Amino acid sequence: MSKIILKLKIFLEWFVEWFVFIATGILMICAINFALFSDGEQIPRATLIQILFSAMLTAAVTAVFFMLEPLKKSSMIFCFILHFSSLTAIMVVCGLHFGWVESGLIEIVKMGASVAFVYVFVIIIYYILDIRRAEQINRRLKEKYKDEEEL
């Protein structure tokens, strides 16, 4: 039972972290699109709720993907492609459902490009934070072993 609780805890922690990153990325894309392609319109209130909903969906998928360990390093590339494809599919469906995009190939490609932008943005942020966490852990381990050696 404790193994299930631990996995659920890890999932929830990753879900919250990914949700914040993804929601920020989606808001950035939305702001850029509105700034470049709208005639002075503001982001509608309903769109903000839709962004949070789509960020929840993609964060849940991302948390699940990151909980799965690839069997081989070569399968990691396949996992990234499958992950990106899943996120793109979710965002295209959300985009069509919420009226963000029309059902044309160009619109779907634009949505894929937006997903790619958010994907790269989030991976870079996650990588930077991951390096900092690793440095903190290494520093704490060095301090711990240094203190034990002095005893």
Could you characterize what this model shows?
- The protein is mostly helical and 151 residues long.
- 86% of the residues lie in helices and 0% in strands.
- It is built from 4 helices and no strands.
- The longest helix has 46 residues, at 105-150.
- The mean pLDDT is 86.
Which keywords apply here?
single chain, 4 helices, 86% helix, 151 residues, mainly alpha
Biggest beta sheet attributes: none
Strand content: under 5%
Overall pLDDT: 86
What is the terminal-to-terminal distance? 39 Å
Write the layout of secondary structure elements.
Elements: H1 2-37, H2 45-67, H3 74-98, H4 105-150
Describe the structure concisely.
The chain has 151 residues and is mainly α. 86% of the residues lie in helices and 0% in strands.
